[in-house]
Design brief:
Blueprint lengths: L3 E2 L10 H9 L11 H14 L3 E5 L2 H12 L4 E6 L3 H5 L3 H6 L2 E5 L9 H7 L9 E8 L12 H13 L3 E6 L2 H8 L3 H5 L4 E5 L10 E5 L1 H13 L8 H13 L4 H16 L4 E2 L9 E6 L6 H10 L2 E2 L1 E3 L3 E5 L6 H18 L2
Parallel strand pairs: 1-11, 3-4, 3-5, 5-6, 6-7
Antiparallel strand pairs: 2-8, 7-8, 9-10, 10-13, 12-13
The structure holds ligand TLP.
The site of ligand TLP has 14 residues, from helix 3 and helix 4.
């Protein structure tokens, strides 16, 4: 059975060109700074983000962890959204490994946090409070249905941070999806932040890796922390080689994923028994719900999987499907047919 895997864009497999680049990569020991392919990727990434320097890390989670640990010491506080990936899905690493205190603010459905709420969360220098050091944003915003933060919003948060001598870190795991959706150069979205993590895997389809970008001083500190969490990788040019292809060839094609997500969402809207807010589908994420009580979301996801269509049931958000490099338009139509058949079968 052919499987249509819409659980996440993390399931993408490397392109043939990536596999060739991996095989041909020139290698050295990156802990000595001697892996030429990794050095090239880090320079390319920094250039794309408009930053001074870059650092290859094993994953988006590691990139966010290292960045937050580079900005904050033990007992310092980071302000972040209550729906943010770092707060929800990164195993509490910032608290467990860094002693960093998370102060959460409600994310609006569009992925923003209200500026007044952020301002109110910034602690004055007082012995009772953790020291506020950092604000974290996420673009695109995963649990806010792939919502895109605008450069204007990012700048307004950076301005507020600047007034209080705070830094801003951006979880830009899918920052290229945001840039493509807005029709902007990605550097427009990172211009005012102090650090950004973006993923080479996910929509860019590299098998492993993320890059942290920031000032040279920040990256030097992040490099030391990467070593301390065991992330110093030796001949990591084999990872970087695929990352270079990802940056050179895979960013523009994200528009195809967005078009497929739109097609999927419009098809879901036609199926009696499913509900979706079409306005929320702006990148490659499609969140929707069941309107029938004959099946829970988990049961629906299980039944779909039996028929070769994989998605995620994310209580209380309903179901999530994510389009990516491994999904063609015909797969979207196939998945819609399976969903419609399954829902129809419930009525008999
Ligand atoms: N997100 C994964 C799961 O962990 C939920 C997914 O399938 O969407 N930031 C954001 C915004 C993310 O969505 C993710 C992965 C990460 C960071 C972490 O990246 P990795 O998986 O490379 O550690």
């Amino acid at each position: 059975m052919d499987v249509i895997d819409l659980r996440s864009d993390t399931v993408t497999l490397p392109s043939p060109k990536m596999r060739q680049a991996i095989a041909a990569a020139e290698l050295g020991d990156d802990v000595f700074g001697e892996d030429p392919t990794t050095n090239r990727l880090e320079d390319m990434a920094a250039d794309r983000m408009g930053a001074e320097a870059g650092l290859l890390v094993a994953s988006g989670t590691m990139g966010n962890l290292i960045s937050i640990l580079a900005h904050c010491g033990r007992g310092d506080e980071v302000i972040l959204g209550d729906q943010s990936h770092t707060f929800r899905y990164e195993a509490g690493g910032i608290a467990a490994l860094g002693g960093v205190h998370p102060f959460t603010i409600a994310n609006s459905p569009d992925g923003t946090m209200c500026l007044a709420d952020i301002a109110a969360a910034i602690h004055p220098d007082n012995v009772h409070f953790p020291r506020t050091k950092l604000i974290c944003l996420e673009n695109t915003h995963n649990r806010c249905r792939g919502a895109v933060l605008t450069p204007e919003y990012t700048e307004s948060v950076a301005d507020l941070a600047g007034e209080h001598s705070l830094s801003v870190h951006l979880d830009g795991a899918r920052i290229f999806n945001a840039a493509v959706a807005l029709g902007l150069d990605v550097a427009e979205l990172t211009r005012c932040v102090d650090s950004v993590t973006f993923c080479l895997s996910k929509g860019l389809a590299a098998p492993v890796g993320s890059v942290v970008c920031g000032s040279a001083e920040f990256i030097a500190s992040a490099r030391r922390i990467r070593k301390s969490v065991g992330g110093g990788m030796r001949q990591c040019g084999i990872i970087a080689a695929a990352g270079i292809v990802a940056l050179e060839e895979m960013t523009d094609r994200l528009a195809d994923d967005h078009a497929n997500a739109r097609r999927l969402a419009e098809g879901i809207a036609q199926i009696d028994g499913l509900s979706i807010d079409l306005d929320t589908v702006v990148t490659n994420m499609v969140y929707f719900n069941l309107t029938t009580d004959r099946l829970t979301c988990d049961q629906f996801a299980d039944r779909l999987a039996e028929k070769g269509v994989k998605c995620l049931a994310l209580s209380p958000m309903g179901l999530r499907m994510v389009t990516h490099y491994g999904i063609q338009t015909a797969d979207i139509d196939g998945a819609l047919n399976v969903m419609a058949d399954l829902i129809n079968a419930l009525h008999y």
